[in-house]
Specification:
The complex is a heterodimer of chains A (94) and B (163). Chain A has 94 residues and is of the alpha+beta class. Chain A has one helix and six strands, in the order H-E-E-E-E-E-E. Chain A has one domain. Chain B has a five-stranded antiparallel β-sheet, with no helix packed on it. The chains are: A alpha+beta (94), B mainly beta (163).
Chain lengths: 94, 163
Amino acid sequence: MREVVAGAFLAIAAMTVATSPAVAKTVTVPVHLTLTVANSCTIVTPPTVAGSSGAPSIALGSVIPDCLGQGVSAALYVERASLKEGSYIATIDF
Amino acid sequence: MKYALWFAIFVLEGTSVGLAARTATPLLVGARVRANCLLRAPLGLDFGVYNPATQRNTPLDAAGNVLSIQCTKGSPGVSVALDNGESYANSHRNLHDGDNDIVAYEIFTGADHATVWNMTQTVAYVPTSGQPASIAMYGRILPAQTAPHPGRYADTLLAMVNF
């Protein structure tokens, strides 16, 4: 009798579990994303000669320092007395 | 005392003592293996160093097996969704530096960067083994955006596995 009662109990329990509806579940986890923006400048337009006679200084051309994507114009001048043919190097300090 | 002991044994054993009877009863035993999933993202995704002065016109990509998923073998209908993060604006996710500066980015479902991974365009996962597996994320810093200030930018997405 005890076996029969126990068996019936397990059968009912098993049927109860088997017929319980599946429930949609969601598991959530955080995902961290990182980026380092560099402090940097570059010259995007080489200077070009655009001299003007009679001025105390001669503009060699525009230098465009592109710092962090913010284009800023700066002119490069050379004293007329010291102007010589050749290459001039523009540098940007930042 | 001796008779009391025998009486106690008789009571405990019930009527089967000495009768040699056996009853066979079908016993229905069943169990359901429920679908379950674990999801982890221990490392996140680092885009590295971004130089707006030289890189702003080209996308900066980063990819990695960011998500680790483990589901009960054979679980049906498993999909992974991503929310839009903490600073979604202008139809894009954004990394932020805590000082109102942002860098637009997106997370894609594939290396072709064709489909944005979000709450509706999800990534399906079929657990064939029940063992942990990796799911890659494909990130992209979007080109042609306003240059941000230098510094450290971050965002946090919520990844959700539905099953």
